Amino acid sequence: MRSSTRVTIKDIAEKAGVSKTTVSFAFNEPSKLSSATCERVLAMAAQLGYVPDPVARTLTTRRTGSVGILLCQPVEEALRNPYLGEILQGIGSSCAGQGLSLLLVPPFHGQVMEAARRAAVDALVAIGVGPDHQVVDLMQRRQIPLVTIDGCPGEGLSNVGVDDEAAAYELLEYVLGFGHSRLAIVELEPEVYSDGSGQTSAVARRRMAGFSRALGEAGLAVDAMRTFRVDCSLSGGMAAADKVLAGTGCTAILAMADILAMGIYVRCSEAGIRIPVDLSVAAFDGIQLSRILQPGLTTISQPGFEKGSEAGRVILSLLDGGPVRQVLMPTTLQVRASVGQVPD
Amino acid sequence: MRSSTRVTIKDIAEKAGVSKTTVSFAFNEPSKLSSATCERVLAMAAQLGYVPDPVARTLTTRRTGSVGILLCQPVEEALRNPYLGEILQGIGSSCAGQGLSLLLVPPFHGQVMEAARRAAVDALVAIGVGPDHQVVDLMQRRQIPLVTIDGCPGEGLSNVGVDDEAAAYELLEYVLGFGHSRLAIVELEPEVYSDGSGQTSAVARRRMAGFSRALGEAGLAVDAMRTFRVDCSLSGGMAAADKVLAGTGCTAILAMADILAMGIYVRCSEAGIRIPVDLSVAAFDGIQLSRILQPGLTTISQPGFEKGSEAGRVILSLLDGGPVRQVLMPTTLQVRASVGQVPD
DNA sequence: GACTCCAGGTAAATCGGTTTACTAATTTTG
DNA sequence: CAAAATTAGTAAACCGATTTACCTGGAGTC
Question: Most Cβ neighbours (<10 Å): which of A238, A280, B36, B335?
Answer without folding.
Answer: A280
